[in-house]
Design brief:
three-stranded parallel beta sheet, alpha/beta, 5 helices
C-alpha cells in the first residue's frame, strides 16, 4: 500500500486529519490519509457543528483568540466556496441568578453584548437566569459537509491519497 515515499502520513479522516491533509497538500507535500471508517465517519460526522467562541471575562486575550479562530474558519469557508450550510445566528451564554455578579457592560468584549435579566427572560421565556452574554459571531455548520469538501480539495491537488476502511495495527 505505502511502498512509495511520501512526506506525511495522517491517521484519521475527521476534521483535524482532513484539515492537515488539505493544508499540507496545498503546500506541495505528498500526503496519505488513513481512516478505519471513512471521511467524517467518526465524531466529526456526528457532532452538531456549533461554532461558539468562549467568552472569558477574566482573559481578554483568550476571548480574542477564540473569536479570531471562528472568524478565520468562516473566512476560509467563504473564500473556498464550501457549501456546509454555515448559518450565523449568535449564541447566548446564560448565568444563573446566584452564580456571579453581573459585570459592567464596558467589561464585555466586542462584538458581544451584556443582556440583563429582563432581556434574557424575554428571549428565553423564563426568569430562571440572572444575566447573559450574547455573542453575534457564533454560528452553526454541517461538519461532515465541510470535511468532505476539504477532502475533495486535498485530492484535487494531486498530492493526497485517502484510504478508507483501513485500520492501522501499530505505529
Amino acid at each position: 500500500l505505502l511502498e512509495e515515499v511520501l512526506d506525511v502520513l495522517v491517521l484519521g479522516a475527521g476534521l483535524t486529519g482532513v484539515a492537515c491533509a488539505y493544508w499540507l497538500s496545498k503546500f506541495g507535500r505528498d500526503v496519505c490519509l488513513l481512516d478505519p471508517r471513512g471521511v467524517s465517519g467518526g465524531a466529526t460526522g456526528r457532532n452538531g457543528g456549533h461554532l461558539s467562541p468562549h467568552i472569558s471575562l477574566s482573559d481578554p486575550e483568550l476571548t480574542q483568540f477564540e473569536l479570531g479562530s471562528v472568524n478565520e474558519l468562516k473566512a476560509f469557508i467563504e473564500t473556498e466556496g464550501i457549501d456546509c450550510e454555515l448559518r450565523q445566528g449568535g449564541s447566548l451564554s446564560l448565568r444563573s441568578q446566584s452564580e456571579t455578579e453581573m459585570p459592567r457592560p464596558e467589561d464585555i468584549p466586542s462584538p458581544c453584548s451584556l443582556w440583563d435579566q429582563e432581556k434574557v427572560a424575554a428571549a428565553m421565556h423564563t426568569d430562571q437566569f440572572g444575566w447573559g452574554i450574547f455573542n453575534p459571531e457564533a454560528c452553526q455548520l454541517w461538519p461532515a459537509k465541510l470535511v468532505y469538501c476539504m477532502a475533495q480539495r486535498a485530492l484535487d491537488t494531486g498530492h493526497t491519497r485517502i484510504f478508507e476502511n483501513y485500520r492501522v495495527a501499530s505505529v
